[in-house]
Hints:
alpha+beta, disordered N terminus, 824 residues, Aminopeptidase, 23 helices, globular, 31% helix, 10-stranded mixed sheet, 4 domains, 21% strand
Amino acid sequence: xxxxxxxxxxxxxxxxxxxxxxxxxxxxxxxxxxxxxxxxxxxxxxxxxxxxxxxxxxxxxxxxxxxxxxxxxxxxxxxxxxxxxxxxxxxxxxxxxxxxxxxxxxxxxxxxxxxxxxxxxxxxxxxxxxxxxxxxxxxxxxxxxxxxxxxxxxxxxxxxxxxxxxxxxxxxxxxxxxxxxxxxxxxxxxxxxxxxxxxxxxxxxxxxxxxxxxxxxxxxxxxxxxxxxxxxxxxxxxxxxxxxxxxxxxxxxxxxxxxxxxxxxxxxxxxxxxxxxxxxxxxxxxxxxxxxxxxxxxxxxxxxxxxxxxxxxxxxxxxxxxxxxxxxxxxxxxxxxxxxxxxxxxxxxxxxxxxxxxxxxxxxxxxxxxxxxxxxxxxxxxxxxxxxxxxxxxxxxxxxxxxxxxxxxxxxxxxxxxxxxxxxxxxxxxxxxxxxxxxxxxxxxxxxxxxxxxxxxxxxxxxxxxxxxxxxxxxxxxxxxxxxxxxxxxxxxxxxxxxxxxxxxxxxxxxxxxxxxxxxxxxxxxxxxxxxxxxxxxxxxxxxxxxxxxxxxxxxxxxxxxxxxxxxxxxxxxxxxxxxxxxxxxxxxxxxxxxxxxxxxxxxxxxxxxxxxxxxxxxxxxxxxxxxxxxxxxxxxxxxxxxxxxxxxxxxxxxxxxxxxxxxxxxxxxxxxxxxxxxxxxxxxxxxxxxxxxxxxxxxxxxxxxxxxxxxxxxxxxxxxxxxxxxxxxxxxxxxxxxxxxxxxxxxxxxxxxxxxxxxxxxxxxxxxxxxxxxxxxxxxxxxxxxxxxxxxxxxxxxxxxxxxxxxxxxxxxxxxxxxxxxx
Length: 824
């Protein structure tokens, strides 16, 4: 017995010594954290080293970025918990699916770092936090599994770190004017495609988000923290969050945020560090790194350290303090450890309340019915739901009633068994309610982001929100494969045009040098009716001997159904030789980038062309845009941006000449300001009415008063002229996401393709009363015709964050259907 006892004590002692032998980040890297920025591969190397050294740390690769940097999470817990990690995971998931499941006694805390690449102190803090957990805080790990994602956005981080290392002084310069404190465009904040990943959790348009959400939903942690940085003069921010809270958030979630905040305050008070809570950062918009986890049952929080891309290794603040990278990393380490501490102390309560969250009896809407009028759109919505493991079914035929999204009134629908039904009595039911609800309840107009996002509007569906559960059947996912066969004798091959999938198919045809046409008018042939925009591929235009084989192969690849006809003589409407059946030439597209352009808007367009249309474009920098020979292009796209110095009179004259010769200029969002109220352009601004006696308002009331001039991401119903090529594939009603109070008058010349009529009002989201007055009788999409070409004005961004899916065909129409018959 004595020998066994001695061996046991020796074993415990050896394990303890072994655990302490792991190197600190400074010992492993060869420099103190905060003395330089650590490149992503070095961070990964340290996490690999610790996981290879300690058996209670497990590293898992969950993905890869566009620039092929690896994405990892690390699990840290007691040895026993690591040995039973899969059992703990499954037991936790069972709490989300079965109210009778036994509660777990293990807290699960997920710490996410560096979602914004130039908020770089948090990744440095992740290494310090890992080391402290495995050396000094092991008692917390007995009942807690900590998951660390050391860098959500490696592409953005390395963009920032590499730039900073190239330009910094030695020693670093703390002066605010120094070059090292002024990042060049586009900055390190976004990912490869210049998307803000902290706004992409719910929409999952980016590869980082898609891969992260997949592993996140395998775990469904009880606490999730997103580490950020803000302006250099701000104190540290931590929970509790500011109003508005979405009403789906429980009292427990709100209360425990306060408990966590008080625990942090204890440590910050001891050091005399400044901090603030309950201001600026709300919990409404569902696609943040704090709200998405919150709506999935977690305590979701944002922590904000002063610094951002300006701070570098050190900068002097306006108050004369020197803010260093070392201090920033320590602050983040402190809140990270404090979060784990309070989770460990409340592990049992966290599990009990977590399980309660998934009782969806009190959710307002029990079912959402989506009318299936376009299978391509249904498929795109299903892909999004699948990413979040949200289940759906098909409706049973019959009459259903509820809130009609198209009329904003209670109404009845005739359901078919092809319609989609999403119920809220499922584990992700509260998130379903948030994503599909017609309008989020808004208790405060001062918010940090958009206030409307409802998926039926974003995807362009007629839908019903029902307060009672609708009858449905299990969804039978049949993969549609068209039965297209090669007809060598066909006079024409005909394809519909009403979805983004059709545009991607057209883009592929053009790249394979197949010449298509589109009809500007409806027609009937072979007993079938076709709408405006229908794609017609004529044998006469394509004399290649294997043209039909290539066409059918491309159609099958894109799952497009072809209709063939042996004659160009239509049963009704235009014949195929009509001047209204216009050829679509391969368009060479240029996209403006660089200083002056919104990096986010540029990124949305770049991402759209490369990943959805899969059609090439040429990216031109604003530095030499005015010297570019525009005659080399057919389409020039100007993203949202501010172009006073770029679009000077000389460049505007060049663009006008380009349009007159048959080119298309597409201006989006604030790019319209470069054309408004200028000679030669029909675009004019609507003026906000002057506010009288504004200077007499109390100072404390001015911020809220200014909100009256704003529209913070609200949805408005517009009218579309579906007889114009820009409106082909759409219905006459379109719901647009308006992002600002800027409005423009109807065009006096040209075509008002999309507009808000005199009765326009917001159907969802916040619009200040002054800004709201200017929306009626204002422009949405206009075409200013110039010679053989045109300027296209898009007041609202149809690609916003790539989640406003129903807007994307407008841009495809502008590129492929406007002036595309012109040979330049």
